[in-house]
Design a protein that fits this description.
The chain is an all-alpha fold. It has a single domain (12-157), classed as NusB-like (N-utilizing Substance Protein B Homolog, Chain A, Orthogonal Bundle), CATH 1.10.940. It contains 7 helices and no strands. The protein starts with 11 loop residues before the first helix and ends in a 10-residue tail after the last helix.
Length: 166
């Protein structure tokens, strides 16, 4: 499960988010602990191999490792809370377990980052995960991720969404 190649050099925070989505997917599919997945990614998947061009073989070059680890840890430690928030933000005809597992990982990572104190503004987080989801999907999934994360952003960080002037 590697995203379509996209040059995110110079965007270490975006690369961290891509890696976090991949790690959350891997942890869920393999029933692996988050610490094991974080360790595997740091040792084998983050950074560039000499002579490679970047995202080959699931590698994520230039990732901000502390942000990557924080997103994965927050998403897994608070998964029950995050899943409840996602269920509340999803349309009723789209239960969480019906979602593509990669889309579920995108939404969990985005929700985790919205829950983390001191991070970037909610709109930045939402836009970043919209970009990340476009790396994995060509269909309607990025729009769904955007809509769900926008609802969560407004719920979790209402100060980031000032009321429109009337």
């Amino acid at each position: 499960m590697a995203p379509r190649p996209k040059d995110d050099r110079g965007r270490p925070r975006t690369a961290a988010r891509v890696a976090a989505v991949q790690a959350l997917f891997q942890a869920e599919q393999g029933q692996t602990s988050p610490e094991t997945v974080i360790d595997e990614f740091v040792r084998h998947r983050l950074g560039e191999l000499p002579g490679s061009g970047g995202f080959e073989d699931g590698r994520v070059p230039d990732a901000n490792v502390p942000l990557f680890a924080q997103i994965v840890r927050t998403a897994t430690k608070r998964q029950e809370e995050i899943d409840a928030l996602l269920i509340g933000a999803l349309p009723p005809e789209w239960p969480l377990d019906r979602l593509d597992p990669v889309l579920r990982a995108v939404m969990r990572a985005g929700a985790a980052e919205l829950l983390m104190p001191g991070g970037p503004p909610a709109r930045v987080v939402i836009n970043e995960y919209l970009d990340v989801s476009h790396g994995f999907f060509d269909g309607d999934e990025p729009g769904m991720a955007n809509g769900v994360l926008d609802r969560l952003g407004r719920q979790l960080r209402p100060a980031d969404f000032p009321a429109a002037a009337t």
